[in-house]
Amino acid sequence: MDVLISNEQKVVELDLNFIREVALEIMNFEGTPKNGQLSLLFCDDEAIKCLNREYRGKDEATDVLSFPMELENFVPEIRMLGDIVISTETAIRQAEEYKHSLEAEIIILLIHGLLHLHGYDHIEENDCKKMRVREAEILKHLCEIGNYIKLKDISSEPLIERVSE
């Protein structure tokens, strides 16, 4: 598995190695094939607003966008799952609102984006419940494996409850 990261934002310094390690753990937990590849882009609100307008018809910034790439019945040497785009500006605001670290917020958004690439959605109420349960399971897994020092503050139940809402 591979995670390609592009950091086009200048708002905050990110530990890209840590983010890559967490993304790989989530991909492994979700059963991503060994030849799976993910593209992850960090940007500012203006950039994600442009993408949101172009691809979703919504003229507003958002926290995370996912763009699945894999085509049915197409088995290339590398299985490109798709792209995840995260706005660090929105992530900073949400981390402050929910009173946890920026790293924790980015991981929540990463989990959410990866689940979209694995076919989860939250448009219908039943699908939303399934996605929220899976988000909480992944978050709990990351907290339990204990080798992510920076995830100390996400082991709290309120954070797991947030993704379960």
Helical content class: 40-55%
Query: What is the H/E order?
Result: EHEHEEHHHH
Q: Detail the poorly predicted runs.
A: none
CATH class wording:
Alpha Beta
Radius of gyration, whole Å = 15 Å
* Total number of strands: 4
Strand order of the largest sheet: 1-2-4-3
Give the name of the CATH superfamily. Answer: Metalloproteases ("zincins"), catalytic domain
Shape: globular
Domain count? 1
Largest sheet: 4 strands, mixed
Distance from first to last alpha carbon: 30 Å
Mean pLDDT: 86
The structural class is alpha/beta
CATH-defined fold name: Collagenase (Catalytic Domain)
Number of helical runs? 6
**CATH architecture term:** 3-Layer(aba) Sandwich
The percentage of residues in β strands lies in 15-25%
Protein architecture, described:
The chain is α/β, with parallel strands linked by helices. The protein has a single domain (2-118), classed as 3-Layer(aba) Sandwich (Collagenase (Catalytic Domain)), CATH 3.40.390. It has helices at residues 16-29, 45-56, 88-98, 102-117, 125-145, 157-164, and strands at 2-7, 36-43, 64-68, 79-87. It has a four-stranded mixed sheet, with helices on both faces. β1 (2-7), α1 (16-29) and β2 form a beta-alpha-beta unit. α1 crosses α4, α3 crosses α4 and α5 runs antiparallel to α6 (157-164). The longest helix is centred in the last third of the chain and has 21 residues, at 125-145. The radius of gyration is 15 Å and the shape is globular.
